[in-house]
Amino acid sequence: MTQAALSSLINHQIRLAARPAGLPTDANWSHTSDAVAEPADGAVVLQTLALSLDPAMRGWMNEGKSYIPPVAIGEVMRAGGVGRVIASKNDKYAVGDYVSASFGVQEYLSLEGADMRRNGLVKIDLRVGTLTQWLNVLGMPGMTGYFGLMDVGQPQAGETLVVSGAAGAVGQTVGQMAKIRGCRVVGIAGGQAKCDWVVKELGFDACIDYKSGPSAVREGLKAHCPQGVDIYFDNVGGDILDTVLARINRKARIVICGAISQYNATTAIAGPKNYLSLLVNRARMEGIVVFDYADRYHLAVAEMAGYLKDGRMKSKEDVVQGLQNFPSALLKLFNGENFGKLVLEVASA
Ligand SMILES: NC(=O)c1ccc[n+]([C@@H]2O[C@H](COP(=O)([O-])OP(=O)(O)OC[C@H]3O[C@@H](n4cnc5c(N)ncnc54)[C@H](OP(=O)(O)O)[C@@H]3O)[C@@H](O)[C@H]2O)c1
Predict the structure, then answer these.
(1) Average pLDDT of every residue of the chain
(2) Superfamily of structural domain 145-291
(3) What is the pLDDT of residues 27-48, one digit of tens each?
């Protein structure tokens, strides 16, 4: 892109304006814009094509210690994404290359030097997967599901695995990989449509609609896990975690991946009441953070891209259009309106 064409571009951004209490509202965001500058020597200018909307964003809006620093007030909201190089003064990147990086909720981003590594800038190959698959099964949620399952869940053929958030980004990878490893797979999801999809399309053995009644999870586990639960991959926490804990087997593994039911709590979050089931069953509960596996992502990508190609795995994305719709789109994660990996399309590829 010529210097004149670059300087005519306006970069629209969404910044964190205030820390939320409970669900984020419009008051938590500010909308800003600035000009796009010519890249310095060694730098690249990227155009955002699509952003990954993640439950973790809610945690990044809070003050306090976590596995990653909070987004500062006034900072462009953090977001992983995929995009295209539109100007380059770096030998490793050519105009037209597709990349994945931490883009932030904005239309353009310049990166140079150490920021390239800090922002996780890597090229992606669209022959391996589509742009949205690179945000889903081949992206951060897929890596979470894969390594959480393999490293902590340690699935063995014939075991029973239960996964909550089953129709979501992480859940769809976990359930399908566990089927490939020979497990009996039971999902937990909100609503009949999501349950039908994981069973009929993804090949799960059963799925429990936790919204169908107050004892749906307890009764569903009794019906669909007659041999008990060997692995529970927990994406939601809260009452569902407690109910599954009551059904685990000896030496069960509980993968603590997330607790979305608690992310917008305005009082102390609810921890598991049934934790003594771990003692009785000599079981283990372990948390995972996906970034710890970054040096092995390529292995999971190679394996799962093969399954996507040969049809053993499917991926479903739920795409919302338009950067300005970020605040409302994010809320879909917390009311279960997203069906599949939630993606915000910012520009067409
Ligand atoms: N540890 C890590 O490194 C790591 C990395 C990525 C993600 N995660 C965690 O993994 C989990 C899933 O993330 P994702 O990106 O795959 O999101 P997702 O499952 O695609 O979307 C979130 C889903 O959570 C469910 N949900 C929302 N509120 C709920 C509630 N109160 N009770 C039960 N379910 C609720 C909804 O599905 P239903 O319609 O089924 O209710 C919603 O669609 C999150 O907890 C996230 O924080 C952890």
Answers:
(1) 97
(2) NAD(P)-binding Rossmann-like Domain (3.40.50.720)
(3) 999 999 999 989 999 999 999 9
Give the pairing of strands 10-16 and 229-234.
unpaired
CATH domain 3-136+316-345 topology: Quinone Oxidoreductase; Chain A, domain 1 (3.90.180)
Q: Is 71 exposed, middle or buried (0-12, 13-18, 19+ CB in 10 A)?
A: buried
Distance between Cα 157 and ligand 1 center (Å): 26
What distance in Å separates the CA atoms of residue 167 and residue 179, rounded to the nearest whole number?
15
Packing angle, helices 297-310 and 169-180, rounded to 10: 80
* Buried residues in 173-197 as b, exposed as e (16+ CB within 10 A): bbbbbbbbbebbbbbbbbeeebbeb
CB atoms under 10 Å from CB of 76, counted, come to: 18
Measured in degrees and rounded to the nearest 5, phi and psi for residue 44 equal -130, 150
Question: Looking at ligand 1, which residue's alpha carbon is closest to its atom 27?
Answer: 334
Task: Give the residue, by CA position, lying nearest to ligand 1 atom 24.
Answer: 165
Query: What are the distances in angstroms from CA 261 to CA 104, 179, 190, 302, 317?
Result: 25, 26, 12, 32, 21
**Domain limits, the chain:** 3-136+316-345, 145-291
Report CA(96)–ligand 1 centroid distance (Å).
33
Using an 8 Å Cβ cutoff, are 153 and 231 in contact? yes
Pick the residue whose CA is nearest to atom 18 on ligand 1: 168
Q: pLDDT digit string (tens) for 151-170?
A: 999 999 999 999 999 999 99
Both structure tokens of 196: 């039908």
Q: What is the pLDDT of residue 257?
A: 98
- With contact defined as beta carbons under 8 Å apart, do 335 and 326 qualify? no
Question: Does the structure show a pLDDT above 90 at 7?
Answer: no
Residues contacting ligand 1 via CB (< 6 Å) = 54-56, 141, 144, 165, 167-171, 189-191, 194, 235-236, 257-261, 288-290, 333-334, 336, 338, 341-342
Total Cβ atoms within 10 A of residue 19: 14
Indicate whether 3 pLDDT > 90. no
